[in-house]
C-alpha cells in the first residue's frame, strides 16, 4: 500500500493564532514539533495498516515546517515552495490513498484560523458553482489521479464541511473551535492515539468504500479576492475574466489546470499587497 500525506499547520491541536503559524514568531518552533508529531502518528497508523511507501508533502506557508530529523525514517518528505501542484505536489496514480493532516476550514467560516490558501488575498473560491476550501479542492486534485482521500484531521468546523462535501471521508477532530482564534484542544498524546487508530482503522476496514472525488471535463473556476486591485492584477492572464469588482472567472480544461490557475491568480493578486 502506498500512502500520500499532505500536512498543514492550522489544524494541528494547540494551534490557535499567528504566533503558532508564522516563521520567526516565538511559538513557531513548538508548532513545528507538534505538526511533525501528528504526522508521525498518522504514519504509524498507516504502517500498521500495511503501508510500504509514504510520501509527505509539507503544505503550510513556505512549506519548510516539518522537522525532517524527527520524522519517521520510512517517510519521504517534499519540502519547499514554488511547487506546480502546491499542497498536492507529488500526487500520482501510484498511491492507494491520501491523508490530509492538520487541515482547517475554508475562509469566511468560523473555524480556527480559517482561510482558503492565502488569507491575505483570497476571500472565496468557487469550483463549478460550489464554494470550496483547501480540503475540497485538494481532494479533487487527488481524484484526478484516482486517489481517494481517506482521512482528514483538523477542527470540528472542518469536519462538518468535509462531511457535506463527501460523507465517506473519515475525519479526526483534534480541537473544537470556540472562535477563529480560540479552541478547546486535545492534549497531543491523546491526539496521537486518536490519529494512529483512526488511520489504521480507515485504511484497513473502510478504504474500499471511499471513492475518489472527481470532476470530469472543463472546470469553471471563480476566485474572489480581498479587493478589486487584486482582481485587476490577474487580468494579465489570457482567459481570465473580471465578473465583479473583486471576482474573476476562468474556464479550465480540467481540474489540474484549474488548480494551477488558482496558484497563478494568487501569485499575481499578492503582488499588490
TrEMBL record:
CDD domains: DAP_dppA_1
Database matches in Pfam families: Peptidase_M55
Keyword Zinc-finger on entry: no
Protein residues bound to Zn(2+) 2: 8, 60, 104, 134
Keyword Metal-binding belongs to the record: yes
Keywords annotated in UniProt: Metal-binding, Zinc
Leader sequence residues: none
Protein name, UniProt field: D-amino peptidase
Organism encoding this protein: Maledivibacter halophilus
Amino acid at each position: 500500500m502506498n500512502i500520500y500525506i499532505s500536512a498543514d499547520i492550522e489544524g494541528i491541536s494547540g494551534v490557535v493564532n499567528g504566533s503558532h503559524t508564522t516563521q520567526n514568531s516565538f511559538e513557531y518552533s513548538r508548532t513545528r514539533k507538534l505538526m511533525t508529531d501528528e504526522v508521525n502518528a498518522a504514519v504509524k497508523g498507516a504502517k500498521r495498516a500495511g503501508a510500504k511507501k509514504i510520501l509527505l508533502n509539507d503544505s503550510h506557508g513556505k512549506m519548510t515546517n516539518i522537522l525532517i530529523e524527527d520524522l519517521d525514517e520510512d517517510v519521504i518528505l517534499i519540502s519547499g515552495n514554488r511547487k506546480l501542484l502546491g499542497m498536492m505536489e507529488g500526487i500520482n496514480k501510484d498511491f492507494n490513498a491520501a491523508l490530509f493532516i492538520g487541515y482547517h476550514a475554508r475562509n469566511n467560516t468560523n473555524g480556527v484560523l480559517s482561510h482558503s490558501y492565502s488569507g491575505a488575498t483570497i476571500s472565496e473560491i468557487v469550483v463549478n458553482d460550489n464554494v470550496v476550501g483547501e480540503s475540497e479542492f485538494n481532494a479533487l486534485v487527488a481524484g484526478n489521479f484516482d486517489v481517494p482521500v481517506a482521512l482528514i484531521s483538523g477542527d470540528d468546523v472542518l469536519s462538518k464541511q468535509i462531511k457535506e462535501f463527501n460523507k465517506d471521508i473519515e475525519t479526526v477532530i483534534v480541537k473544537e473551535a470556540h472562535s477563529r482564534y480560540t479552541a478547546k484542544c486535545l492534549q497531543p498524546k491523546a491526539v496521537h492515539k486518536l490519529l494512529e487508530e483512526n488511520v489504521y482503522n480507515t485504511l484497513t476496514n473502510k478504504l474500499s468504500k471511499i471513492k475518489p472525488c472527481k470532476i470530469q471535463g472543463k472546470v469553471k473556476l471563480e476566485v474572489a479576492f480581498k479587493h478589486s486591485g487584486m482582481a485587476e492584477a490577474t487580468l494579465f492572464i489570457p482567459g481570465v475574466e473580471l465578473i465583479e469588482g473583486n471576482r474573476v472567472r476562468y474556464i479550465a480544461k480540467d481540474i489540474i489546470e484549474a488548480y494551477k490557475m488558482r496558484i497563478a491568480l494568487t501569485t499575481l493578486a499578492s503582488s499588490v499587497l
